[in-house]
Design brief:
The protein has helices at residues 15-24, 44-57, 68-76, 184-211, 214-245, 392-395, 417-443, 487-502, 543-550, 555-563; strands at 4-8, 29-34, 60-65, 80-81, 135-137, 165-167, 176-178, 248-255, 257-269, 281-298, 301-317, 323-325, 330-332, 338-341, 345-347, 351-353, 356-358, 360-371, 381-382, 396-399, 408-414, 455-456, 460-461, 471-485, 504-520, 526-539, 568-576, 590-594. By secondary structure, it is α+β, with helices and mostly antiparallel strands. It has four domains: 4-212, no CATH class; 213-244; 288-296 and 415-478; 303-410, Elongation Factor Tu (Ef-tu), domain 3 (Beta Barrel), CATH 2.40.30. The chain is elongated and about 150 Å long. The relative contact order is 0.11. Residues 86-190 have low confidence and may be disordered.
Length: 596
């Protein structure tokens, strides 16, 4: 695995392309070379993204550029900045032609494929005229020392054998992986070894020339070139094999679509355990909820009234026998004010436990015997005058917990029909909202219909329409029994319906379901409703059959084939690499994307 990858970025390169190349490389050390005016300068987040990827993958990143903005971003995000040598510094020169030393073969640890473009082919003027020409020095002078804080130089990348000067090329070149020898002691050793080789080679050439061994020298040069010829031949054979074996196809298909607009009757039952496609039945869960809302409301009417006070009392029976009390039975206060019960009631008998008797009791509504404000009395105890002089007089009594109200003679505020209706509507809305909220909280992810039936009891009030009262006090109680269900089960029914009736596939995107006409079952264990469906469906396609049919076809043949499939609306074919002109015969290299 290569230790280093050099990525030469051009001005027009997109960030995604460079980032993917950087992200997918196996190299531990990556060098990014940016030209002046690169797109990267305009987007600081590009450098931030490279920094995050480098930290997460453990890669070391170095940056080389003549653009001050790139250097600024590189420093900001803690990238290594490679040193660039000014053309004013001296360049090392090759020996004269007849003294050109023989360079030893590179060691296996060094990959010189970094020179994607020969030195002689680099353009002479890649940077703008206003920018001093920047030169990458292949080999520094033997006594040259690295200045503190300058980072690595190009000598850390290219060994000493490449001691020509290279100019940065702004055009993006093919990237290569290379192992870096970046230690100063290793480079100094290489310099010393090459210097010795050059000296020995020069001495050997001089000796050969004096001894007339020109023929041997030519022979040795020829045999030294044989491995290079063999390597080039192997590469050409490999390229030819790749040309024949590589290749993939992506077929993007847009199937025929159909607009949906229909109604499906569904039944949710608490006794069902699975979706039944034959009867459009789904599992459900039963919920029961009860709420009561109370409020005090102003009254707006006014008139002269003659009205009796009223209230509620609790009647007690200490005797061991139940007692029936008819309507209008009198109850008298200690002050002699008489109130009568409005309905016939039965007072249960007391319960005797040893010597202790727990009285039986019952609540009853009462009204004053006469109109007037004097009957608006507070809580107190009452006796039954009808039992006076009998043993039952001591066994029966009554108490009130709240004041008697409403007794009046003269002008007074009265409850109008509008007052009553307004209060009733407000409390009814609150009761329904509270019941629905409580049901949905209990149901969690289950679907509870807003249109379920909620039963309301008759309002409880302190005054009816036309009666006198300072304020209208009203209480309303409501209850609901419903069945909750999973909406995913309804979607399964819709999918099955579309598939069976239209032979198509339901598209979940833009699918809208409205639930109307809920009807609870007689036993309250089921709920039927209509699901109003709107959306789209697409034709079904057998992708495996298409792969088998098109493999090996030319581009024109496959287009003709796909145009003949009635379920297909349009297609797009992508063949890669660029030299591939037909669909691969291997179905594993064919990818079909259905775009709905």
């Amino acid at each position: 695995m290569p230790a280093t990858k050099i990525i030469n970025v051009s001005k027009s390169d997109d960030f995604e392309e460079v980032f993917d190349l950087f992200k997918n490389t196996d190299a531990e050390d990556v060098i990014l070379i940016f030209p002046k005016g690169s797109r990267f300068v305009k987007q600081e987040q590009y450098f931030e993204a490279i920094r995050e990827e480098a930290d997460s993958s453990g890669k070391s990143v170095s940056i080389m550029s003549a653009d001050p903005a790139v250097i600024e971003f590189a420093s900001k995000y803690n990238f290594d900045v490679l040193e660039k040598r000014s053309p004013a510094e001296p360049k090392r020169q090759w020996p004269i032609a007849d003294e050109e030393p023989e360079i030893p073969a590179p060691s296996p640890e060094t990959d010189y494929s970094v020179l994607a473009t020969p030195v002689a082919d680099f353009p002479e003027n890649e940077f703008e005229a206003s920018e001093p020409e920047t030169v990458l020095t292949a080999a520094a002078d033997e006594n040259e020392q690295e200045e503190p804080g300058m980072g690595r130089t190009i000598k850390d990348i290219l060994p000493a054998r490449f001691d020509r000067s290279l100019k940065i090329k702004e055009e993006r070149e093919r990237t290569f992986d290379v192992d870096i020898k970046n230690r100063v002691e290793q480079e100094e050793t290489q310099r010393g070894d090459i210097a010795k080789i050059w000296a020995g080679e020069k001495q050997r050439k001089d000796t050969n020339f004096l001894n007339g061994q020109t023929g041997k020298r030519l022979s040795r040069g020829f045999f030294k070139r044989v491995p290079l010829v063999l390597a080039i031949g192997a590469v050409l054979v490999l390229v030819f094999i790749l040309y024949l074996t590589l290749g993939s196809a992506q077929i993007i298909i847009s199937p025929v679509k159909q607009k949906l607009d229909f109604k499906l009757n569904v039944s949710a039952s608490s006794t069902a355990t699975a979706v039944n496609f034959n009867f459009n039945q789904i599992p459900g869960q039963q919920f029961t909820e009860q709420k009561k809302e109370t409020g005090t409301f102003p009254v707006t009417g006014q008139k002269d009234v003659v009205q009796k006070a009223s209230g509620t009392i609790t009647i007690f029976n200490k005797g061991t026998t139940a007692q029936r009390l008819v309507a209008t039975t009198r109850f008298k206060s200690p002050d002699g004010l008489v109130f009568r019960i409005s309905q016939t009631i039965n007072v249960p008998a007391g319960v005797k436990t040893g010597a202790t008797v727990t009285p039986g009791s019952v609540a009853a509504a009462v009204y004053a015997d006469r109109p007037g404000t004097e009957y608006n009395i507070g809580p107190m105890q009452f006796t039954i005058p009808g039992f006076e002089g009998t043993p039952k007089f001591n066994d029966f009594y009554a108490t009130s917990d709240k004041p008697m109200t409403g007794g009046i003679i003269g002008p007074a505020k009265v409850v109008t029909e509008k007052d009553f209706t307004t209060a009733q509507e407000e409390l009814t809305t609150k009761v329904k909202d509270e019941i629905l909220k409580s049901l949905k909280d209990r149901g969690g992810e289950l679907k509870i219909l807003d249109a379920i039936e909620i039963k309301l009891d008759a309002p409880e009030v302190n005054a009816k329409v036309g009666e006198a009262a300072e304020n209208l006090e009203m209480s309303i109680q409501g209850s609901a029994d419903t069945i909750a269900f999973r909406e995913s089960d309804v979607i399964e029914l819709i999918k099955n319906f579309v598939s069976q009736k239209n032979g198509m596939e339901l598209l979940l995107k833009d699918l809208v379901i409205s639930y109307v006409n809920p009807q609870p079952g007689a036993d309250k264990t089921s709920l039927s409703f209509d699901a109003q469906v709107s959306g789209w469906a697409a034709a079904k396609l057998d992708t495996d059959a298409i792969k088998n049919d098109v493999r090996g076809m030319s581009e024109d043949s496959i287009r003709s084939y796909l145009n003949g499939v009635k379920e297909i609306e349009s297609t797009r074919i992508i063949l890669s690499p660029f030299w591939v002109k037909s669909i691969p015969k291997d179905v594993s290299k064919i990818k079909i994307d259905i775009q709905n």
